[in-house]
Design a protein that fits this description.
- By secondary structure, the chain is of the alpha/beta class.
- It has eleven helices and 17 strands.
- A seven-stranded mixed β-sheet has the order 7-6-5-8-11-16-17, with helices on both faces.
- Helix 2 runs antiparallel to helix 3 and helix 5 packs across helix 6.
């Protein structure tokens, strides 16, 4: 079950509600989300009291972004345990809510394993639920730290690629604080460049069909006082041709063992454009997005979204941007091809930036080394 609380944005830089938080009102624990469907017009909190409500929030993109989905999945297990629901069933529902984002599965299993170990050790239901909650909180903290480290590594790498500053960065979809326990992935690097006085301009792809760039990245850029411009996705080629892009920075929802990158649809065409125009194409993602169990790009399951997201435009400003709530722009009965993601092969990726460092060139051996370094860090 989910409830909504609406806060009208009072000005150009309103105080932001937490993107995700655990709360324990008298009636029982809940997971509270900043409803990203309502941005930028309203800051709306969506209160999830059970796993089906959280699954719905994930599937309708009220909460989104690979790292944040992992955190939400972990808290979802804690919510199920705390409310006395079947944790195994909850894990099954959450893991398949969005199949491409490997972080979701990672976070769900992390908290479910903590819960299972506590039960096996003879813990009470309350203690086992507490173990799941602590696992979720630990993942939340770790992702915030990973965000900080990715920003530092990414900024240093940009300095090596583009000495002298004045970076003109093109980004796709939304990769800021709205997808992370910290300040994000690719956006966090651009933000670090801005704070260092090295960002000349941020080019923001609108990101059709659900406009995560227009609604969310532009909102975050404006809040942070960054110089930015919004462009239609199909205008990116003219920017490259005019020599107005120094680097492309994107996030990832899954990086396969060979270095293939699944990210919001439209990323692959940017990689092709970047290669043709000799512009670095850089992927920024935490090591939780690396998936050694997926051998290559062809093995990545790409989520197919409803046709209505393509055949409709969003409803009037401020309305919930769910499929089916918009205005039709295509003839009734029009079929649509609407993959949520596309896959970029490793040979088109200049570098992968993680909290463990920068991998360039991108190879399967390098991906394995990053995963091993992450394991050593977590064990330490």
């Amino acid at each position: 079950m989910a409830d909504q609380q609406v806060h009208d944005a009072p000005g150009p830089v309103p105080p932001q509600l937490p993107v995700l938080r655990w709360a324990q009102p008298p009636e029982g624990p809940v997971l509270v989300l900043l409803d990203q469907r309502r941005l930028p017009a309203h800051e709306t909190e969506l209160v999830c009291t059970d796993v089906p409500a959280l699954v719905h929030a994930i599937q309708t993109l009220a909460v989104r972004g690979a790292p944040l989905l992992g955190i939400a999945g972990a808290y979802g297990i804690a919510l199920a345990a705390a409310r006395g629901y079947d944790v195994v069933e909850a894990a099954g529902l959450l893991e398949v809510a969005r199949p491409t984002a490997v972080n979701l599965r990672y976070g769900v299993r992390l908290a479910a394993d903590a819960h299972g170990r506590a039960e096996a050790a003879g813990a009470t239901p309350e203690q086992a639920a507490g173990a799941a909650l602590e696992a979720a909180r630990a993942l939340h903290r770790a992702d915030a730290e990973a965000s900080r480290r990715m920003a530092a590594h990414g900024l240093a790498f940009l300095g090596e690629l583009l000495p002298g500053g004045g970076h003109r960065i093109l980004t796709h979809c939304n990769t800021g604080a709205l997808v992370s326990g910290g300040e994000g992935t690719a956006f966090a690097v651009a933000l670090a460049a801005h704070r260092a006085g090295e960002l000349r301009h941020l080019w923001v792809d609108e990101t059709r069909p659900l406009l995560q760039g227009a609604r969310l990245t532009a909102w975050e850029a404006a809040r942070n006082g960054m110089p930015y411009s919004l462009l239609a996705d199909n205008a990116a080629g003219s920017l490259f041709a005019a020599g107005e892009v120094d680097a492309v920075l994107i996030g990832a929802d899954r990086i396969a063992a060979d270095g293939s990158v699944a990210n919001k649809v439209g990323s692959y065409p940017l990689a092709v454009l970047a290669r043709y125009h000799h512009v670095p194409f850089v992927v920024v993602a935490p090591t939780t997005t690396l998936d050694l169990t997926t051998p290559d790009g062809s093995a990545i399951e790409v989520e197919q979204r409803p046709a209505r997201e393509v055949t409709e435009v969003p409803a009037p400003r401020g309305a919930v941007a769910e499929a089916g709530s918009g205005v039709s722009v295509a003839p009734l009965g029009t079929r649509a091809y609407n993959p949520a993601f596309d896959v970029t092969p490793p040979e088109l990726v200049t570098a992968v930036v993680t909290e463990e460092g920068v991998l360039s060139p991108v190879t399967g051996d390098g991906i394995a080394r990053l995963c091993a370094a992450a394991r050593r860090g977590s064990e330490g």
